[in-house]
histidine kinase
Amino acid sequence: MNPKIRKNKNRYFHYQKEILNTISEPASFIDRNFRYLFVNSAFNKTYEKETDEVIGKTVGELWELADFENKIQPSIEKCLKGKPVFLLYEGITPNGKEKILEMNYYPHRNASRRIDGVISTAKDVTEHKKAEQALKESEARLKELNATKDKLFSIIGHDLKGPLNNILGFSELLEQGFDSYSSDEIKHYNKLIYKLSQSVSDLLENLLTWSRAQRNVLKVSPNNIAVCFTVEKCFGLLIQNALHKEIRLKNIVPPDTVIFADEEMITSVIRNLVSNAIKFTHRGGTISVGARSSEKEVVLEIKDTGIGIAPNKIPNLFLPNENQSSAGTEGEKGTGLGLIICKDFVEKNNGKISIESELNTGTTFFISLPNEVKK
């Protein structure tokens, strides 16, 4: 090559390097073999690498190999074909730190206008992206809180006020006409008052629990729990409801089944699901609670022979902004609040809840929770 031409080419590249050194962001020149031929001072500072640690090495040697092969290499190859490329990179940088970078690759043409490599620049947007994500999560949380507030007002304004007004009305009838009613009529009104009071009591219990959960007053304190005993305790609380409808409660959880969870929360979950099952199961039906264990988790199954749930309603059962309230087989009132609490409590204990149902056949709730922790 003519010495004069070589000198001009070297001077051309020298000027480019001087320009790149004025940039405050990491910049580098990468040849067609993916080797670094130049890095600016910002590159040294950002990635904590001296120039002699970088020059001559390939991009794959400096960056995580998997990230290079899956993210960086395809971008450079596309750029070498003549098109600038933008890449939002999320991964490990050469100094071993996990970052989010806006990376730009520009085709570099030599003095002969042939593409001989790529100019790469990068901008650290980690904090900006984290702030964006935090804002999105905050917005989602705000929407959820608004839906929760609307649900609460709806419950207080309708589901709580209605039964209380009915209790007052029936009580007033008994008070004013006690001597004129037959014993059968009095029993009938007492039965109605009992059912309404029971509904209000369940609702208030759920409202208080839910309120404590929303205010983060409830703290998760997981321990090893013998599930069979917990189910038996829940059955004891609900046996009168079941006997009233001649429903059989079956605890088929193996006695040695142990989960690692907050006992108060899981008791509330089981109680709510069994209580719901009683509402939506006809007289003479059966409700069973079983469990199957694997190496990492226990799956509880709360199964009833009730009326089932329509397929179009299942996806929205656990959403606070959806009104899923419906009457039980004997007119029992519900709000859907219990299921929202169940989902919240299960997830707080690193578990999952799902449902299978068939109309006029029954419903099964599945709750997966961590297995016991060996001490």
